[in-house]
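Tip: read the tokens left to right.
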């Protein structure tokens, strides 16, 4: 049985000893640092946006191409640690090409590159004789995305008070980018890794950590780092400004709370600084019978009498008064005497009238006696 198994492997060596199309074949972790890769195929391979990654998720992006059956060397400074590190090789789609695992602490002389690949520049050749131009076929546009650009990336807005929390990141470059192995951390060095985030040219992307990172009950700080652990943005803010109606925005180079503009351009003005003010408790209405605190004077209260005003819209009432003879009544005299005098007036009038009626008869009799 053992003989049959050995015979099978001898007859199929390509299965056991198959060589990767492209791989890392040598390296040096001490100065000068360098990494050598080899193309084992019979064709050139395009390497644009391929990258190396170390144990701390730091990356180095490479570009260009490598010719068939050739070697290429990439030299760096401060990438690989000389006290223990690992090295992996990825293509532009983040597929793992080769993983060396833990590296030996070595210092080797850099070899010579045998790569002769040059990306040709298309130069149109003028045609003197017009020819029938065939209908062009749809050719896929090459991916212009740049992984981990050296500039143009910034944190422009974040919301630490929501669940999930979120960060808005802006790409000021004229080409789309992909952020690999970037990170965000807080004042207590809690770290959330941005494994892969695509951002369009002159556009925004939103990163939402899978779990909360910020402590909203104390003073806090946000730190935004690139793949090399370099700080891109950092900002400290005080506790007591918690609100879901406003986010922290970068406006004219300064951080402040403003209207939420998640995923698009920030507003141009800030809100006033907020502070937590306790809600005032309701003040009961004073009861004048029991609560004397409403009074500010010890003076005795007295009624206020408003003068009665005669209305100009009342029509006067007409009263018939029987004309009387002039009497000895005095205007403004005693009311009692006036009443008594007025009681004899009808009698006087009756007597006087009777005298007037009989006076002719009396006069006539007197004359006849004479």
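Filled-in amino acids:
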């Amino acid at each position: 049985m053992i003989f049959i198994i050995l015979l099978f492997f001898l007859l199929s060596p390509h299965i056991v000893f198959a060589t990767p199309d492209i791989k890392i074949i040598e390296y040096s972790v001490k100065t000068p640092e360098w990494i050598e890769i080899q193309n084992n195929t019979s064709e050139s391979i395009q390497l644009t946006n391929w990258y190396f990654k170390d144990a701390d998720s730091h990356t180095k992006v490479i570009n260009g191409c490598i010719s068939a059956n050739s070697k290429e060397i990439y030299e760096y400074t401060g990438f690989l640690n000389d006290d223990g590190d690992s090295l992996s090789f990825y293509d532009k789609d983040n597929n793992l090409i080769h993983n060396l695992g833990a590296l030996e602490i070595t210092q080797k002389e850099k070899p010579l590159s045998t790569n002769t690949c040059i990306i040709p520049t298309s130069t149109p050749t003028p045609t003197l004789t017009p020819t029938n131009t065939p209908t062009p076929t749809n050719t896929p546009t090459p991916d212009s995305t740049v992984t981990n650009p050296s500039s143009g990336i910034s944190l422009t807005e974040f919301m630490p008070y929501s669940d999930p929390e979120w960060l808005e990141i802006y790409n000021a470059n004229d080409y789309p980018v992909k952020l690999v192995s970037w990170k965000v951390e807080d004042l207590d060095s809690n770290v959330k890794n941005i494994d892969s985030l695509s951002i369009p040219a002159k556009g925004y992307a939103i990163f939402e950590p899978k779990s909360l990172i910020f402590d909203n009950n104390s003073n806090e700080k946000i730190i935004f780092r690139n793949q090399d652990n370099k700080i891109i943005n950092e900002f400290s803010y005080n506790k007591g400004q918690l609100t879901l109606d406003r986010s922290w925005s970068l406006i004219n180079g300064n951080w402040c709370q403003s209207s939420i503009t998640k995923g698009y351009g920030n507003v141009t003005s800030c809100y006033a600084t907020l502070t937590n003010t306790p809600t005032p408790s309701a003040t009961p209405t004073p009861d004048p019978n029991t609560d004397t605190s409403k009074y500010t004077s010890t003076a005795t209260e007295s009624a206020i009498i408003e003068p009665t005003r005669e209305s100009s819209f009342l029509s006067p009432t007409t009263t018939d008064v029987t004309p009387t003879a002039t009497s000895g009544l005095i205007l403004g005299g005693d009311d009692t005497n006036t009443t008594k005098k007025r009681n004899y007036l009808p009698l006087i009038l009756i007597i006087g009238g009777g005298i007037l009626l009989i006076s002719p008869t009396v006069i006539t009799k007197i004359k006849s006696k004479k």
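The helical segments are 2-11, 13-16, 335-369. The chain has three helices and 19 strands.
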